[in-house]
Amino acid sequence: MSLQIEIASWERHFATLTNLRRTVFIEEQGVPEALEWDGLDAAAIHFIALDDGNAIGCARLLADGHIGRMAVLPGCRGKGAGRALLNAVLHAARQRHLGWLYLNAQAHAAGFYARSGFQPVGAEFPDADIPHLRMELVMEHHTDILNQQFAIAGRLEFMDAAAGVPVVEITTPHASARIAVQGAQLLEWQPNGQQPVLWVSRAALYQPGKGVRGGVPVCWPWFGAGEAGKPAHGFVRTRMWEVRETGQGMADSVFIRFGMKDDESTRALWDYAFDLELIVTVGAALKMELVTRNAGTTAFEISEGLHTYFRVGNIRHTRVLGLENTEYLDKVLGFVRDTQIGAVRFSGETDRVYVDTTTDCVIDDAELNRKIRVAKSGSTSTVVWNPWIEKEKSFADMAADEYREMLCVETVNAGDARVTVAAGAAHTLVALVSLEAGV
Ligand SMILES: O=P(O)(O)OC[C@H]1O[C@@H](O)[C@H](O)[C@@H](O)[C@@H]1O
Prior knowledge:
Layout: E1 3-8, H1 14-28, H2 33-36, E2 45-51, E3 54-61, E4 66-72, H3 81-95, E5 100-106, H4 110-114, E6 119-127, E7 130-138, H5 142-150, E8 156-162, E9 165-171, E10 175-180, E11 185-191, E12 218-219, E13 242-248, E14 254-261, H6 264-269, E15 274-282, E16 286-294, E17 300-302, E18 304-306, E19 309-311, E20 318-321, E21 327-330, E22 336-339, E23 344-345, E24 350-354, E25 361-365, E26 370-377, E27 381-386, H7 388-393, E28 406-413, E29 419-421, E30 426-435
Parallel strand pairs: 4-5
Antiparallel strand pairs: 1-2, 2-3, 3-4, 5-7, 6-7, 8-9, 9-10, 10-11, 12-18, 13-14, 14-15, 15-16, 16-30, 17-29, 18-28, 19-28, 20-23, 20-25, 21-22, 21-24, 24-27, 25-26, 26-30, 27-28
The structure holds 6-O-phosphono-beta-D-glucopyranose.
6-O-phosphono-beta-D-glucopyranose (BG6) is lined by residues 232-233, 307, 331, 351, 383, 385, 410.
């Protein structure tokens, strides 16, 4: 056996590539023709494995780092052709300065990709009736590439929080911030001379494919439990997002725009075409804008949330103002409906969806002697959550007694407050966090 990998083009190697894929995907695995020929081949880079000059396998790489259509002919497997193809794809990705790669592995082949460093993200899903698993690989030079494209001297820089977990650090004359690229998850916003405003657990995990306990997880396209077998709070909080733009704005602020589009693995969980963006603007205030665009031809419904964990001095000496006389669903009591009398105070597990509320909330923290204002638009519900002593123990990524120093006031559309986004239309959810003047 003399194995060689050749870089191929769809035009020149059309017959060889279609023969290989027809044999493996359509004939052997029963993938429908319409799914196999998805219109993305002409723009892809293709790879062919040759054994003594005979084509025995193939793979392709798309411009956004999506690896796919990996196939080795039956009878030619187990001899290293798959590994050689994957290595050639990784090499080509490095040369093209791709910072991260992803693929939807057939579940039985997940170990093969894991040996090259790919990490599973989310649960298995069916594609063409075959169980698949999304896997992602952050390349070693990922932050270098992001810095070349998006760094702003003295203001914005990417670095690794842990292996494969890139974060962006933003420094402005008024405040600093840290955001993980995975999940586009805010981890810190700290106005100068203040304690951090966001809370992140000391036991938080910084791992590819896992959300961080704290900061601002983005919950989308559903908030809460979702359908059986699907991840709580949607699927975007554990996936890598693209960085699309960075820049400087008004009043010395710095912004970063993250994006994500649908692909096979999102459509298996939620069968709609979308383009989602999170724009974070860091300055004297912190602005988060979550923009949902419907890229398909039918309307869809979402629920969503900017699941903001705030740092407080002592939850027992903290109140939330702005929800007085508002109705809420009490999750601790099986979603019973009640009405808020006075400020929200805390003396036990609290998990409530306040409905039909668009007003600002103010977190009045007597211990740290500060007031945090959470203003919003595009949101008609607010979740207030603290797990308290018992529930905290059920979270492996929360340390003992941390419930005392955190409080979630979440800008959401949840419960019955689902948002319908028409085909081609957009909807924006905004949370604006600031410290009250004079405190
Ligand atoms: O553990 P997760 O999935 O991040 O969710 C944390 C909490 O998120 C809150 O928004 C929910 O109201 C709680 O019920 C839930 O426990």
